[in-house]
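Table S4 entry, Dynein light chain.
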Amino acid sequence: MFSLIKPNHLLAHEKAKESLKESVRKASKDLGRKKQQQQQHHQSSVLDSKKLALTVKEKQLKKRDEGHDNDDMKKASASLGRRRSLGGSQVELGDILANCGVKIVSVDMPPFMQIHAVDCARKTHDSLEKFTSKALALTLKKEFDGVYGPAWHCIVGTSFGSFVTHSVGGFLYFSMDQKLYVLLFKTIVQRAD
């Protein structure tokens, strides 16, 4: 039998999808607003975690120069190098992204950058007539190089292994639709002498 009325479970699913799309749009607008504020103040695009690491390092040097013991500072700087576990805003973000078929596998990146990466990957994946992993990887790399500075790298595929060294706050590994995996990371730019 055919009915023109949608079942309640389909309506609830569509409402959840629309809610997710709206939250991603809002996060993208917040990202745009934040980028504009940074440009107005002519600030460099140093992540908060890097600023904190620099502050801790400055305090270490100052204490060393003053001759004080700096064991507590060593503990603080050692904990900065580890990847953060999912907690606080990360859990909420993971739940939101799960609704659109994205699962975060491993992360060391601020939430607004994660949203940007997932949004860019999803739009690129959906817009390509003939999808290729290379096209998606190149698009993500160019986008992040343009917005967050050079030295971004991207690997896209269904089955690959990796071991990478990345900058603090510059690592994201996620899956889309449980079959396509994306690894996005940033390295440190060193000038040739």
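The mean pLDDT is 72.
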